[in-house]
Design goal:
Oligomer: single chain
Number of strands: 22
Largest sheet: 7 strands, mixed
Number of domains: 2
Number of helices: 14
Distance between the termini: 8 Å
Radius of gyration: 22 Å
Length: 465
């Protein structure tokens, strides 16, 4: 039996891990879109490294676009098997993938109309491909072992990352031998604003482990509410500017709304306009409201006094393109939350382009950004950045709130692994992380007794013993 890593290998996007049994049966774990990889992004998204027609089964860890975003292309190119995921992941994937197809079409149209398109910038897939992929979903409940093949059983446990997120546990009989493989997906935090903590899981022989923040700690940072209050006051009230916050529509946007709502409950929220400029974020917020079973006890306590913890005075969701364009041109102070989180696609790029050359404004980053993405370049302090193939001098203040990550830090990741007997784990594969970070995390888990750790390269294949 073999495992091959076709994405999120020494990188943080494009999650795709392919397990191939001796008889040729193939199970694909995640099928994510590469994001923020600079000029090579389109090339990476255009080549799987395997034949979609030969994939028998798909298992999804969660619905973030870097884990689910290429599913429609997989279906378009011939995959017709079942896609196993939690109900919340299916609900989120539906809206994320439809939105993704629309964004690709809009971006291609914009670049073509502005004369900046080289060859038409064809979209990776369309709405018909999304609909085909959605028809292949099969819902799996947490902690329910499901036989998907006479040789393969799967179980999902709560990973605490976003609603519906799961660690995937496979029991595979191959050539008369049993293998237990765990794929962590993305591991959440044990002190998340909204969600329950990651669950413990059964003993594994092999672990595919994310490592995004394998060298960082989130604790002891200033509380999110206090930092937001300070930034909004300084930018909107004192300087009369705009705060633009690139934020992923699923998870991060809701955490921001929850924190702002908390400020209102404490009568501290500055009296300015607040906008969520993303139809997807509105849909995602609705989905999250429909899954209250994922909330932690803190959120449940808030809901005893406030039935909607994601809404407050002065908040407006922007849906139409016309409203979004009007907001770009509106000079009044406000706070705009808009996707994408890395600022590499969607409406947020238009807002950043509009405010970036004025020092009274603030661009606030609230999550991980690939170094080559627009968000990553802004965080790195580049004085000039390219947006829609036009260069802009960065005069706006660029700030980051690191404590809002939905990814666990290295203590959270070690906590996640603590339910395992290291002596029984034959190998840990580190994925979903930058190489230097992965090297640091590899040392940490080796110190915990996990003797064999691999950091796969793109398309690298391993034989399982």
């Amino acid at each position: 039996m073999k495992i091959t890593f076709h994405g999120a290998a020494r990188a943080v996007t494009g999650s795709k891990h392919l397990i191939t049994l001796t008889n040729g049966t193939q199970v694909l774990l995640d099928c994510g879109l590469f994001q923020g990889m600079g000029e090579v992004t389109d090339k990476l998204n255009g080549y799987f490294g395997f034949n979609p027609e030969k994939i028998d089964y798909m298992v999804l860890s969660h619905a973030h676009i870097d884990h689910v975003g290429l599913l429609p292309r997989l279906a378009k190119e011939g995959f017709d098997g079942n896609i196993y995921a939690t109900a919340a992941t299916m609900d989120l994937a539906r809206i994320l993938l439809m939105d993704s197809s629309k964004i690709q079409a809009q971006d291609a149209e914009y670049l073509s109309a502005s004369g900046k398109s080289d060859d038409g910038d064809d979209a990776l897939y369309n709405e018909d491909d999304v609909i085909k992929a959605l028809g292949q979903f099969k819902v799996v409940d947490y902690n329910e072992e499901v036989e998907i093949d006479p040789r393969i059983r799967i179980m999902l446990t709560d990973a605490g990352h976003v609603i519906g997120s799961a660690a995937v546990h496979l029991t595979i009989i191959d050539d008369g031998k049993e293998y237990k493989i765990t794929f962590s997906g993305d591991v959440g935090r044990y002190s998340d604003l909204l969600l329950k903590s990651p669950q413990t899981f059964p003993q594994a022989d092999y672990i595919i482990m994310e490592s995004t923040y394998g060298d960082s700690l989130h604790k002891d940072l200033e509380p999110v509410e206090n930092r937001l209050l300070e930034i909004i006051n300084n930018t909107c009230v004192i300087r009369g500017g705009k705060v633009v916050i690139p934020a992923f529509s699923v998870g991060r946007t809701q955490e921001l709304l929850y924190a702002l709502n908390s400020l209102e409950l404490k009568h501290k929220l500055p009296d300015v306009a607040y906008y969520v400029d993303s139809p997807l974020s509105l849909q995602a917020t609705t989905v999250i409201k429909n899954h209250p079973e994922v909330y932690n006890n803190g959120v449940k306590e808030v809901m005893k006094v406030d039935e909607d913890p994601f809404h407050f005075k002065g908040l407006k969701f922007i849906e139409s393109v016309e409203e979004s364009r009007a907001l770009v041109d509106d000079p009044r102070p406000c706070v705009i939350i808009s996707a994408s989180g890395m600022a590499d696609s969607g409406r947020v790029r238009h807002h950043i382009r509009n405010i970036i050359t004025n020092q009274k404004n603030t661009i606030l980053m609230v999550g991980y950004c690939e170094p080559k993405s627009l968000g990553g370049r802004l965080i790195a302090g580049q004085p000039v950045v390219e947006i829609f193939r036009e260069e802009f001098t960065v005069a706006a203040e660029v700030l980051a709130v690191k404590s809002m990550s939905a990814h666990g830090d290295y203590e959270d990741l070690l906590h996640f692994l603590s339910c395992q007997d290291p002596a029984q784990v034959k190998k840990v594969f580190l994925v979903h992380g930058e190489y230097e970070v992965q090297q640091a995390f590899a040392k940490r888990i080796q110190e915990k007794g996990f003797a064999s750790v691999e950091i796969p390269e793109y398309h690298q294949e391993f034989e399982l013993e």
